[in-house]
Design goal:
rod-shaped; mainly alpha; 0% strand
């Protein structure tokens, strides 16, 4: 009777061992698929966010630096050339022509003192003050107005676009990843738990 009972119990034990081996293989396969999908999705999400943020920041910083340097260099170059040409051409030619014509035409009519005072006052007051005020006001107002508008527009556009794109991409991708991973976890957990309940039902069944 003991040997017959042992022979009867052996197929059950062997069958249970076979089901346990099969369930362990399935569990290992599901765990491997879960880890593989998680690594692929995490790598894709990280790469996509890094590329988007890097491209966005690099593009805006490059545009900002390029425009800023262009404005600074252009303003400096324009100011320098304008000042140099204005001072050289206007003052030199005007002074030369004025002094030449004044000396030639009005030397016999005016004294040396009046000529000297008039020339000095005219050159100093009119040319210097007019040139200084014109260049200073033009450069100051133009630079201030352009800098203020550029900084204001750049800050508003950059902050708004950066926050909008970052929040939108982060919410969309994080929601998609969370839903996908949560569904995959539930799917894999159902496959992992179902053999355990099946074995428990087989052992506790009639």
């Amino acid at each position: 009777m003991w040997s017959a009972r042992q022979e009867v119990q052996n197929p059950v034990a062997e069958g249970g061992t076979g089901m346990m081996v099969v369930s362990l293989k399935q569990q290992l396969l599901y765990i491997f698929l879960f880890i593989f999908l998680f690594i692929i999705l995490f790598t894709f999400l990280f790469t996509f966010l890094f590329i988007v943020l890097f491209t966005f920041l690099f593009t805006f910083l490059f545009i900002f630096l390029f425009i800023f340097l262009f404005i600074v260099l252009f303003t400096f170059l324009f100011t320098f050339l304008f000042t140099f040409l204005f001072i050289f051409l206007f003052i030199f030619l005007f002074t030369f022509l004025f002094i030449f014509l004044f000396i030639v035409l009005f030397t016999f009519l005016f004294t040396f003192l009046f000529t000297f005072l008039f020339t000095f006052l005219f050159i100093f007051l009119f040319i210097v003050l007019f040139t200084f005020l014109f260049i200073f006001l033009f450069i100051f107002l133009f630079t201030f107005l352009f800098t203020f508008l550029f900084i204001f527009l750049f800050i508003v556009l950059f902050i708004f676009l950066f926050i909008f794109l970052f929040i939108f991409l982060f919410i969309v991708l994080f929601t998609f990843l969370f839903i996908f991973l949560f569904s995959e976890c539930l799917f894999l957990l159902s496959f992992l738990i179902s053999p355990i309940f099946r074995r428990a039902r087989n052992h506790t069944g009639p």
